[in-house]
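User:
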Amino acid sequence: MNDTTESPDPSVAEHVRRYLDTDGASGHLEAGVTNLLLTHRGRKTGRLHRTALFYGQDGDRHVLVASGSVVTATHPQWYLNLVEHPEAEIQVLARRFAVRARTAEGAERARLWELMVQLAPVYRAYAARSPRVIPVVVLEEVGPAV
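Assistant: Predicted structure:
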């Protein structure tokens, strides 16, 4: 996925640059939590955007929490984009592949939420302060990178 816009947040853009430059050797493990790069299509512009996000694993699936870096009443842009365009690409270390995103619901969401809280306890504090239910996103591999 070429012609990709990096995050407007300078610290996230720098994280993405380090991750790309080192195939994740620098950036995969940050603050004790594993990170991946998500490339997704903008729901308004159709342009590709890339960001770094904490992730967990549930079998061969990757799990994200759509908390945003600041607790707000709105979901992060990357999540809203995935709802509109669920086909995306992720990079985990040097491996890049296509995924399809969906929002976990019900018992699956509860189980995956607990998995992610164990990996990044800050999510529990975010949820306590958030006026919204924070989505849990499941990424299922669908093929090689585009």
